């Protein structure tokens, strides 16, 4: 397995939400000017220290949503003006961007350590904590008791490391974004029922492939589409949902997935159920029900295009696919908009009905040890963090941008302004404040068909597996076998499903992972990490 958190289990990520957030006071506090944000007048510091003293606070931002977009001068940034006024501070926000580690290391070596530092992933935060950058927040949080209450306990728990709170949740991920979609137009035409188990699924795929479901008299449709990301994994990868992932979940397993069962660490790469899932995938491929382009589809856009073209009957896609922008692409590419609908995951032979994992809180925001040297500054920085995540008056401006420019408020209810009516590039920088948006904020995501999209989310989130392990575990950087081990497992699974390696050689594959690639050493490493985090004893 790879040396970073993403390859020990390659989390998903993504990034939508559906339930509107209330912001009843926003309209009354907002300035009518689109260029000046209001003071909310509601700084929520638990114990103001030297309230009259203005502090300059630096914030290294790696969790904003437009990190490569330069921030404007304060005179052109009404959101910053609001923040500074409400918190009696000068805010110096430094954008991380793609090379955020290099930039942060340069700041550290130049003795310009930021006061507030955010990290896009837990593994990186732990690394910098161990190197002495991040501070423990245990004592300081006692003075801000309302701040932890702003987060679900499941999001707070991963912020602990070696028994200490080393940060607070930054951007909130959303689970169950990708789900099972089926072409209901084809289903009705062929007088078929929604598949509920693997055999029914395969039967429907065969009918969608060979029974001319689109009625054009050509053999040009397929029952299923999947993809093969650049890292060659049939299981989890940084590419997100791929199609075959969900087939594995029918059997209750997932390649490259580390789990805990009965208090012990297991790696599904050697589980007998993984062999069964590979057998079923091979049966799908041999039956020619999988679009053969899957071996060249290496990103989500290429997979999306298959849905737009209307030549596939079942696929894994995100819940936005019936939004107007997406149905227009279907109309333009395929000439019609099929009656697509989301369905529950088929139940596997062992009773597993899993779509994906619940999101694990990855991003983190914390204080540097340098900031802690000045108690007044540390408390002002923590006051600012509390403001970001608890101030309801500030929320619309942080999440939606500039009133009467990017959003309006009517009777206390905010609504985004149509982006086509203004030059969004001019204020694209505003998204670097929007990491505070709630994962359930339908205003932020601006769904045009919220009833449909909300229903899709409800289906998806009903079938998420609890996840307190991944990507908490990661490979030991000193492990010389980690990358080769992952590469070998990915290559062998690909060979198994394509027939280049017979599944009768499964036991040899398992033994090779254990002997040559020292899988048991990796499991011992994972066990140690999870014991250190208190997940297992």
Structure commentary:
The chain is an alpha/beta fold and 537 residues long. 36% of the residues lie in helices and 13% in strands. It has helices spanning 5-9, 26-29, 78-87, 100-109, 122-130, 138-141, 153-156, 184-189, 198-210, 244-250, 272-286, 300-309, 324-334, 369-372, 375-390, 395-400, 442-445, 450-461, 482-498, 506-515, 519-532; strands at 55-61, 89-95, 116-119, 160-161, 164-165, 168-169, 178-183, 222-224, 258-261, 264-267, 312-318, 340-343, 356-357, 364-367, 407-410, 413-416, 464-465. The strands form six sheets. It has a five-stranded mixed β-sheet with strand order 2-1-3-14-6. The chain has a four-stranded mixed β-sheet with strand order 8-11-7-12. Helix 10 packs across helix 11 (272-286) and helix 12 (300-309) packs across helix 13. The radius of gyration is 25 Å and the shape is globular. The model is unreliable at 1-37 and 41-48 (pLDDT under 50).
Count the helices. How many? Answer: 21
Report the uncertain regions: 1-37, 41-48
Percent of residues in helices comes to: 25-40%
Radius of gyration: 25 Å
Features:
four-stranded mixed sheet; single chain; 17 strands; signal; 21 helices; 537 residues; five-stranded mixed sheet; alpha/beta; Bact_solute-bd_prot1; 36% helix
Protein topology:
Blueprint: H1 5-9, H2 26-29, E1 55-61, H3 78-87, E2 89-95, H4 100-109, E3 116-119, H5 122-130, H6 138-141, H7 153-156, E4 160-161, E5 164-165, E6 168-169, E7 178-183, H8 184-189, H9 198-210, E8 222-224, H10 244-250, E9 258-261, E10 264-267, H11 272-286, H12 300-309, E11 312-318, H13 324-334, E12 340-343, E13 356-357, E14 364-367, H14 369-372, H15 375-390, H16 395-400, E15 407-410, E16 413-416, H17 442-445, H18 450-461, E17 464-465, H19 482-498, H20 506-515, H21 519-532
Signal peptide: 1-20
Keywords: Signal
InterPro entries: Bact_solute-bd_prot1
């Amino acid at each position: 397995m790879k040396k970073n958190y993403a390859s020990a289990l390659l989390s998903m990520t993504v990034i939508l939400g559906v339930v509107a957030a209330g912001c009843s006071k926003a309209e009354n506090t907002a300035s009518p000017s689109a260029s000046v944000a209001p003071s909310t007048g509601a700084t929520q510091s638990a114990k103001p220290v030297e309230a009259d003293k203005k502090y300059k606070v630096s914030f290294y931002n790696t969790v904003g949503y437009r990190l490569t977009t330069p921030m404007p001068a304060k005179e052109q940034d009404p959101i910053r003006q609001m923040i500074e006024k409400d918190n009696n501070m000068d805010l110096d926000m430094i954008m991380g961007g793609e090379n955020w580690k290099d930039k942060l290391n340069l700041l550290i070596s130049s003795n310009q350590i930021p006061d507030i530092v955010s990290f896009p992933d837990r593994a990186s935060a732990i690394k910098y904590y161990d190197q002495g950058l991040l501070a423990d927040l245990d004592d300081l949080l006692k003075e801000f008791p309302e701040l932890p209450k702003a987060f679900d306990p499941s999001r707070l728990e991963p912020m602990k490391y070696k028994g200490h709170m080393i940060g607070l949740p930054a951007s909130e991920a959303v689970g169950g974004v990708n789900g099972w979609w089926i072409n209901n137009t084809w289903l009705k035409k062929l007088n078929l029922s929604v598949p509920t188990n693997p055999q029914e699924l395969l039967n429907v795929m065969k009918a969608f492939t060979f029974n001319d479901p689109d009625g054009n008299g050509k053999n040009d449709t397929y029952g299923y589409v999947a993809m093969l990301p650049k890292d060659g994994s049939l299981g989890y990868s940084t590419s997100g949902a791929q199609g075959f992932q969900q087939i594995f979940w029918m059997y209750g397993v997932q390649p490259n997935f580390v789990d805990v069962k009965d208090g012990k660490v297991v790696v599904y790469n050697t589980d007998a159920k993984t062999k069964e899932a590979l057998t079923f995938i091979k049966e799908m491929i041999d039956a020619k029900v999988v679009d053969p382009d899957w071996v060249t589809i290496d990103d989500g856009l290429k997979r999306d295009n298959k849905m737009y073209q209307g030549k596939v009957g079942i696929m894994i896609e995100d819940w936005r696919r019936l939004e107007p922008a997406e149905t227009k692409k279907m109309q333009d590419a395929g000439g019609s908009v099929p009656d697509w609908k989301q369905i529950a995951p088929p139940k596997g032979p062992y009773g597993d009905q899993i779509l994906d994992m619940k999101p694990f809180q990855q991003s983190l925001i914390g204080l540097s040890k340098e900031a802690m040297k000045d108690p007044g500054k540390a408390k002002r920085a923590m006051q600012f963090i509390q403001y970001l995540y608890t101030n309801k008056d500030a929320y619309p401006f942080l999440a939606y941008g500039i009133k009467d420019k990017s959003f309006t408020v009517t009777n206390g209810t905010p609504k985004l302004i149509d982006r086509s009516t203004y030059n969004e590039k001019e204020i694209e920088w505003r998204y670097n404040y929007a990491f505070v948006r709630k994962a359930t904020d339908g205003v932020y995501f601006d769904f045009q068909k919220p009833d449909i999209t909300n229903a899709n989310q409800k289906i998806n989130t009903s079938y998420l597996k609890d996840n307190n392990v991944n990507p908490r575990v990661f490979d030991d950087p000193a492990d010389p076998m980690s990358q080769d081990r992952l590469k070998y497992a990915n290559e062998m699974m690909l060979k198994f499903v394509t027939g280049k390696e017979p599944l009768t050689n499964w036991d040899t594959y398992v033994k090779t992972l254990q002997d040559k690639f020292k899988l048991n050493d990796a499991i011992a490493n994972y066990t140690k990490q999870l014991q250190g985090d208190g997940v297992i004893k």
